[in-house]
Inverse folding.
């Protein structure tokens, strides 16, 4: 044991100076304020699951971090979560709180759902206090409480009591170790046994037990570390025993040969067991809080620290370290240079120096301000063996820890020795370029070059007479006269002259030739065409046509810098272009100063990178191990975006991806995808596609939405392309269900309806046949009925025809009778007319007879005249005419006599003649009166009938009798 202690002491004191020289650069620390994960202050335990998922036992619940998003899952009783254990075998995340323990597992959508286990405990062991540890071995689950351990196997709980307060526990090689106020114990079966050879620990407060080599390391709060191999125990000397005693160790974690201790008062202590190097992390160098309650290494060797307030992430595996951080800041870094035993730092506050390698002054790097250098420092340039500080106030020559002003130039950007003239230098200033010469050991201004008035922050020499100057939107080529005092030709080159963009064309000189670093690769000048053109050779040496902010040649190496990466390529004859390394820069760690990016090599493996927060040191790995980022991209969430956002899938630590079934009415989806913050760099682009279609254009957007998808199965794929050309992809399959009228139940209904329709058609046809038969019978009956009806109609028609014929016959007879009567009346009239004429002739003859024989003749004529009169006045004829008239005209004469009995014969006959539509002239001879006599009779009749002047006499006779 003494030999081991001596070995550790010798190793420690031998390597102590080396440890101090490299301790000045600090690992970057990412601070997570408690507000980002639910404002829970204390974090009691940390359990990384893989290179992406990390779980925290926090005051407000179990906290999940997927590399991008923080989520909080409270316990059932809302108590603090004291312990957490992700189980790959059980596919669960076990958590312990205060008098409660249970587990989370993904539900159908992938979201974590909580299941309480402690509710099934018996009342006697239900209240086990704080569950500070949960462990798993051989399908047995152990929950460590304040004074007992609950063992869970095959659904059965067993309580194992401990007659001491349990402070910590850990599972080492399948054996449960517990640290109590009575020493360290082992659980064998259901019985606790003390750790052999560790009796001295009974008086110490145990903070942790971790595996180490063939035994365990026991970590105490004040007494340091002890190694126990199961038989003996010996102190584990680290050289930080006083630090542990003064600051109280609270937690421990181990990975490979690195041990980290969290303290109550002074942050973290990192112990490298190989080199015995000690590294401290506290509020002085980036830690958010000095009280560390939990620690854990992740899969890539970085360190999580749960603080009394907040969570920090220490980037131990990153090749970047920083010199200082807030609040111990010396300003924004712009330039740096190593000279002798000093490292000089130019910031916006002035020039500073520190020893190189950097030393610590207490817990802080020993950085001192350079006297008389306050103000903006733009550059540190070496001319021969002299180092110059280019300052807002002018040019200063650096000599150790002091500066001396050179010339009266003000506003100096940078300087370069004139090609072929080591005693001359060009100095770029705010408004041009100065030519400065060294005379008698002193630098003196020769002149301000005539014809150059623009700012000359960056320039390079093609030769001593040709200078290329970078300005914001163009590059200027200046040709000088032979004595270098005047510009004789000035030509400006813009985007239209071959540059891919209109700004950020940084000029540099590699292997004696001028090149231009642009956002789309490296360009060169073609003097034959007087244009700019791409330079494939240089692009192929580096990372293709990427963004380049600076190019630098250093010891047969080509260095390029962009806001996202550092590329290093070989320029040697035999190794040219081989082993090009691309080193991503995470902007979450540092952000370069825009337009003032710089890279300053200190050696072949160390480079200083000025940035917004100060200065970073980039250590090129001796053996470059490419990290596997093939699974770093993941689809985080899937939402239905219509009619409102609803989560249907959430990524989980198991990577389980159910196939979401989406209703057709909600066929608009949105995917959120992203990379873990631990993925390399920030210059990462994405592509996506649906159902093996064409990949989309590159984008930096981390969400994609599709709308109005038709039914069917879809696979959404997304791919991330990293700066070094490697890719990572993820995919998810989902199904859009058809609308209800095209769904399987609908088709079943359609089949049922079709069968029902067929049955209905069959029944309808059967009924139709029966109905047709019935209809045929009905049709026959109807036909018979129709025939009968037609017969009856025919019979009626024939009867009507007979009646019509009879009527026509009667009308014909009536007409005939009327015609006969008319003929009779006419004949009667003619006869009377003839008799009247004969009578008048008789009178004439009678008047002509004279003499004795005339008397007899006259008597005979008188007799004939009397017969004629008798014939004219014959009532029989009139009677006959009247009867005939009544027969023809429906008893007209009788009705006339009945209604007007006081009418004379002539008046009655007058009415009959008018009924027959005879004219006055035709009536006069029939009545043997004159025409005027007819008019007189008509007048008397109108009086007797009571007719007014406007009344129609004929209408009265035809319609009113």
């Amino acid at each position: 044991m003494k030999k081991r202690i001596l070995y550790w002491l010798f190793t420690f004191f031998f390597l102590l100076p080396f440890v101090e020289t490299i301790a000045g650069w600090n690992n970057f620390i990412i601070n997570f304020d408690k507000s980002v994960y639910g404002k829970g202050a204390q974090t009691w335990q940390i359990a990384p699951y893989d290179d992406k998922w990390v779980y925290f036992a926090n005051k407000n619940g179990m906290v999940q971090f997927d590399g991008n998003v923080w989520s909080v899952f409270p316990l059932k009783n809302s108590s603090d979560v004291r312990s957490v254990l992700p189980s790959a075998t059980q596919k669960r995340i076990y958590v312990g709180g205060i008098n409660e323990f249970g587990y989370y597992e993904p539900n159908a959508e992938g979201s974590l759902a909580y299941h309480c286990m402690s509710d099934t405990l018996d009342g006697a062991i239900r209240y086990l206090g704080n569950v500070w540890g949960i462990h798993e071995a051989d399908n047995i689950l152990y929950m460590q409480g304040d004074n007992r351990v609950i063992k869970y196997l095959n659904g059965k709980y067993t309580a194992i009591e401990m007659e001491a307060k349990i402070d910590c526990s850990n599972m080492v090689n399948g054996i449960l170790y517990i640290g109590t106020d009575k020493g360290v114990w082992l659980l064998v079966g259901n019985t606790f046994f003390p750790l052999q050879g560790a009796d001295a620990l009974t008086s110490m407060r145990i903070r942790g037990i971790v595996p180490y080599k063939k035994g365990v390391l026991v970590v105490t709060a004040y007494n340091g570390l002890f190694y126990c191999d199961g038989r003996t125990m010996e102190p584990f000397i680290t050289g930080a025993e006083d630090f542990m005693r003064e600051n109280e160790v609270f937690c421990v974690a181990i990975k490979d040969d690195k041990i980290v201790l969290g303290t109550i008062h002074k942050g973290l202590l990192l112990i490298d067991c190989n080199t015995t190097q000690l590294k401290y992390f506290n509020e002085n160098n980036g830690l958010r809080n000095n009280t560390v309650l939990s620690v854990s290494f992740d899969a890539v060797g970085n360190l999580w620290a749960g603080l009394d307030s907040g969570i920090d992430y220490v980037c131990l595996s990153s090749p970047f370290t920083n010199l200082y951080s807030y609040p111990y800041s010396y300003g924004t870094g712009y330039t740096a240079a190593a000279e002798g035993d000093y490292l000089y730092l130019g910031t916006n506050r002035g020039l500073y120096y520190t020893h190189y390698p950097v030393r610590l002054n207490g817990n802080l790097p020993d950085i001192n301000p350079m006297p008389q250098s306050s103000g903006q420092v733009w550059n540190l340039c070496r001319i021969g063996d002299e180092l110059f500080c280019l300052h807002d106030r002018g040019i200063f020559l650096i000599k150790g820890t002091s500066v001396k002003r050179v010339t009266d130039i003000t506003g100096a950007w940078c300087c370069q020795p004139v090609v072929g003239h080591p005693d001359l230098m060009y100095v770029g200033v705010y408004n041009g370029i100065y030519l400065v010469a060294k005379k008698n050991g002193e630098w003196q201004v020769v002149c301000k070059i005539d014809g150059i008035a623009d700012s000359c922050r960056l320039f390079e020499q093609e030769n001593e007479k040709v200078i290329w100057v970078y300005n914001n939107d163009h590059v200027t080529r200046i040709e000088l006269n032979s004595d270098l005092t005047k510009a004789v030709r000035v030509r400006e080159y813009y985007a239209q002259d071959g540059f891919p963009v209109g700004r950020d064309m940084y000029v540099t000189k590699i292997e004696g030739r001028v090149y231009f670093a642009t956002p789309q690769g490296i360009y060169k000048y073609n003097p034959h065409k007087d244009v700019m053109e791409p330079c494939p050779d240089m692009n192929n040496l580096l990372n293709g046509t990427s963004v380049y902010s600076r190019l630098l040649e250093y010891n047969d190496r080509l260095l390029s810098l962009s806001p996202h990466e550092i590329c290093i390529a070989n320029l040697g004859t035999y190794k040219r272009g081989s082993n090009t390394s691309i080193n991503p820069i995470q902007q979450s760690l540092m952000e370069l100063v825009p337009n003032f990016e710089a890279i300053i090599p200190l050696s072949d493996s160390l480079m200083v990178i000025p940035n917004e927060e100060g200065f970073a040191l980039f250590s090129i790995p001796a053996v470059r191990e490419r990290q596997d980022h093939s699974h770093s991209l993941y689809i985080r969430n899937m939402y239905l975006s219509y009619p409102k956002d609803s989560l249907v899938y959430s990524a989980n630590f198991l990577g389980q991806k159910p196939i979401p079934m989406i209703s057709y009415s909600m066929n608009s989806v949105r995917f959120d995808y992203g990379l873990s913050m631990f993925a390399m760099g920030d210059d990462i682009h994405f592509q996506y596609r649906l159902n093996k279609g064409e990949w989309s254009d590159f984008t930096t957007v981390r969400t994609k939405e599709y709308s109005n998808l038709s039914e069917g199965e879809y696979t959404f794929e997304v791919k991330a392309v990293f700066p070094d050309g490697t890719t990572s992809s993820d995919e998810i399959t989902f199904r859009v269900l058809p609308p209800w009228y095209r769904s399987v139940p609908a088709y079943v209904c359609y089949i049922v309806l079709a069968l029902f329709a067929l049955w209905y058609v069959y029944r309808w046809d059967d009924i139709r046949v029966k109905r047709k038969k019935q209809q045929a019978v009905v049709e026959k009956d109807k036909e018979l009925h129709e025939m009968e009806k037609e017969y009856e109609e025919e019979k009626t028609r024939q009867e009507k025809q007979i009646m019509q014929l009879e009527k026509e016959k009667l009308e014909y007879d009536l007409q005939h009778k009327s015609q006969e009567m008319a003929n009779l009346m006419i004949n009667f009239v003619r006869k009377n007319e003839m008799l009247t004429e004969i009578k008048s002739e008789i009178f004439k003859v009678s008047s002509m007879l004279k003499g004795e024989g005339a008397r007899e003749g006259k008597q005979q004529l008188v007799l004939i005249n009397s017969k004629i009169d008798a014939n004219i006045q014959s009532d029989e004829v009139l009677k006959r005419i009247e009867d005939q008239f009544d027969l023809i005209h429906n008893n007209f004469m009788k009705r006339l006599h009945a209604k007007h009995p006081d009418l004379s014969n002539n008046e009655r006959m007058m009415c009959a003649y008018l009924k027959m539509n005879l004219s006055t002239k035709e009536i006069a001879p029939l009545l043997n009166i004159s025409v005027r006599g007819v008019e007189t009779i008509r007048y008397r009749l109108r009086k007797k009938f009571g007719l007014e002047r406007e009344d129609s006499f004929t209408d009265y006779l035809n319609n009113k009798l």
Summary: The chain has a mean pLDDT of 87. Residues 744-848 form the longest helix (105 residues). The two ends are 166 Å apart (CA to CA).
